[in-house]
Write a structure and sequence with these properties.
Layout lengths: L4 E7 L8 H17 L4 E3 L17 H17 L6 E10 L2 E10 L2 E7 L23 E5 L2 E6 L3 E4 L6 E6 L1 H4 L4 H7 L4 E6 L7 H16 L2 E6 L16 E4 L2 E5 L7 E7 H10 L13 E4 L22 H26 L3 E5 L4 H17 L6 E5 L7 H13 L3 E4 L3 H11 L8 H22 L1 E5 L3 H6 L12 E2 L6 H14 L3 H12 L18 H5 L2 H14 L3 H11 L6 H17 L1 H4 L28 H6 L3
Parallel strand pairs: 1-2, 2-3, 5-7, 8-15, 9-10, 10-11, 16-17, 16-19, 17-18, 19-20
Antiparallel strand pairs: 1-14, 3-4, 4-5, 6-7, 8-9, 11-12, 12-13
Helix pairs in contact: 1-2, 7-8, 8-13, 9-14, 10-11, 13-14, 16-17, 16-18, 17-18
């Protein structure tokens, strides 16, 4: 439970219809197995104490009496278990029979959540036996104790206040206004569902989409436990289709017809972070739902969830290709509008033969296609200087020609040397002044060429560089429209690869593949034996690590200690812990110290959920201190 992870499980025991003693034993076996898996929250199906398919046996005192005793035995079995358990049971109150989910914790029955919507159509006839739950929760006397009873009871963990669990039962989530909506608005971060949903053709797909969608709508975890083998097959078959979802993502799903226990970790802190940012997720001013406390030990949760090494990049190749096409379209449409609005006669792109400028040129070419303008009106400018290698120079030139742009070469070495003399800088001193003078000279050239032709300078810098401040202030940091401003470096690579894979011209394709094979470098230091001497990732760290840090820090507000833990698991065998720690500290320091560069960014299109525009997604003071974040890594 440390750092917000709560291990949740959904179990489908193999029951016998109306054999409560047998079912009690199987439920306890599942509790024992879930405990071994480390589960803190366990959900069983609807009416699993008796079986859902008892029919008119629900009118028999014998069944109801035995169900009550079986529930007490299951509750007693949880006495030494560090777990919150929900189990379905028929419950007789004031002469009426209710379909309920009992919440059990450390030997106690914490409450009974009642089913609100009773299906009475098709194969269902629950209103023959059960009464809909009351509109509001109250207390009842159960075995001599006052126990909460009713809908939408909130069970809140004393040891992690953000863990608030509420139950609904089967049909409730299929209804137009599920009870879980009000529960979530009042603070429930996890919804559990004790269900008995039979299998018919295609129903599993609808059920999965329903649970997935409800978890997204509520920004919540959702644990769905479904009845399975053991139920009567007189008319129906139940598949044990258990699902654990989190904010629109299915974390774990059972194979149907196998009566599985599924287990995964719900990230409570992630959900709370999402709700904080979502201004339409509004907690009602008047709280009306009953809250019941429970206890769990706070300890480190063993993670079975997998976190992708490149969270900005879809892992499925087909999804990735579709995503690349969409992003390129967004970038090009943004630039199209700006070019049309400003009546720019040309677009000026500084090309280096590197990934970022390649992507910027590809996007600019698309924008011109959308405008119906000739690509020769694109001015692609190569500006060789002290660090330029033949490989990058040739790739830049060939690419510009193959895309149909007008290529112009402006060597800047002489101008930079004049500048060195003007400011009294020794050309043999390869310090930051040596490097940045070249970057600023290039920007000046691009701006002045744009002025000459009534054009617009297209920015090439990407979001990863902006996060790290790896850009020369008023150099490559500046442009008139930054098409790559919200594209992280790991995604830039895949966008260029997609362009290469789909290119019809074989020579252009070959150039793009060679750009992909070229080390990332600003090429501001003299080459060594004709090869790039300055490799960015040797200096600032691997971009795949920085993009991983960036994603989880900005998208979900994770603390560095949690990010470090996830990175250790995700990059195990690829980077040593000391290496991950070093670059995480570097990321935190640079992210805070370089905010001033992001505070005055040029316009550029947002393409994903993470963006650093000071006008929209990320508004941070330029003087904020990183001390708390650096300290958190120590925890």
């Amino acid at each position: 439970m440390k750092q917000g992870f709560v291990k949740a499980a959904a179990a489908t025991p193999e029951i016998r219809v109306a054999d409560t003693a047998y079912n009690q034993e199987k439920i306890c076996e599942c509790i024992q197995e879930a405990e071994k898996l480390g589960a803190k929250l366990l959900v069983f199906p609807e009416l699993c104490i008796t079986g859902y398919t008892c029919g008119d046996l629900f009118t028999q005192d014998v069944l109801l009496r035995d169900a009550r005793q079986a529930l007490l035995q299951v509750a007693a079995f949880t006495r030494e278990k560090d777990m919150l358990v929900f189990a379905g049971v028929p419950l007789c109150v004031d002469g009426k029979l209710y379909n309920a989910a009992a919440a059990l914790n450390r030997g106690e029955i914490l409450g009974f959540t009642t089913k609100t919507f009773l299906p009475n159509y098709g194969e269902f006839y629950e209103m023959r036996h059960f009464t809909p739950g009351p509109k509001e929760a109250r207390t009842i006397c159960f075995e001599g104790k006052q126990v909460p009873f009713g809908p939408q009871i909130l069970f809140q963990c004393r040891d992690m206040e953000e863990l608030v669990v509420s139950a609904e039962i089967c049909e409730d989530v299929w209804s137009p206004v599920p009870p879980s909506i009000e529960a979530a608005l009042e603070g429930a971060t996890v919804i559990v569902n004790c269900s008995a949903s039979d299998e018919t053709i295609g129903k599993d797909i609808y059920r999965r989409e329903l649970i997935q969608g409800q978890s997204a709508r509520l920004i919540a975890g959702y644990v769905y436990a479904n009845a399975g083998e053991g139920e009567s097959t007189t008319d129906l078959v139940f598949g044990g289709h258990n699902i654990i979802a989190e904010n629109g993502t299915v974390l774990k799903e059972a194979k149907r017809y196998e009566n599985e226990i599924i287990c995964s970790e719900i990230d409570i802190h992630r959900l709370v972070s999402e709700r904080r940012k979502n201004t339409t997720f509004r907690t009602p001013e008047e709280r009306v739902l009953l809250r019941v406390p429970f206890h769990l030990n706070v300890e480190e949760t063993v993670l079975t969830r997998k976190f992708p090494q490149q969270p900005f990049v879809p892992q499925d190749s087909r999804v990735r290709a579709a995503r690349c096409e969409e992003i390129l379209t967004i970038q090009a449409m943004g630039l199209k509008k700006r070019l049309a609005h400003t009546h720019a006669k040309t677009a000026v792109v500084g090309i280096s033969g590197g990934l970022d400028s390649t992507l910027a040129l590809l996007v600019t070419a698309r924008a011109f296609e959308l405008l119906g303008r000739e690509k020769k009106e694109i001015l692609a400018v190569t500006m060789p200087c002290f660090g330029t290698t033949d490989r990058t120079y040739n790739n830049a030139c060939r690419m510009a020609v193959k895309l149909g742009a007008t290529l112009r070469e402006v060597p800047i070495g002489e101008a930079v040397n004049v500048h060195f003399r003007d400011i009294g800088h020794d050309p043999e001193d390869h310090s930051v002044t040596y490097e940045n003078s070249q970057a600023r000279e290039r920007t000046q050239v691009l701006m002045d060429l744009a002025n000459q032709d009534g054009g617009m300078v297209i920015g090439t810098g990407d979001m990863s560089e902006l996060a790290l401040g790896w850009a020369t202030y008023n150099g490559d940091h500046m442009s008139m429209y930054g098409v790559n401003a919200s594209v992280p470096k790991t995604l830039v690579r895949h966008l260029v690869r997609y362009a290469a894979d789909t290119a019809e011209d074989e020579e252009l394709r070959a150039v793009l593949y060679d750009v992909l094979d070229t080390p990332v470098s600003p090429e501001l230091l003299p080459p060594k034996e004709g090869n790039i001497a300055q490799k960015t990732e040797d200096l600032v760290g691997p971009y795949e690590l920085h993009d991983f840090f960036l994603y989880y820090m900005i998208r979900f507000g994770y603390e560095p200690g949690k990010i470090y833990r996830l990175a250790l698991q995700t990059f195990e065998g690829k980077y040593e812990p000391a290496v991950i720690r070093k670059w995480l500290e570097t990321f935190c320091r640079r992210f805070f110290s370089q905010q001033f560069k992001r505070s005055c960014l040029p316009d550029g299109p947002k393409v994903g959920t993470v963006a650093l525009s000071p006008r929209g997604d990320w508004r941070m003071p330029s003087d904020a201190c990183a001390a708390g974040w650096l300290k958190d890594i120590e925890k």
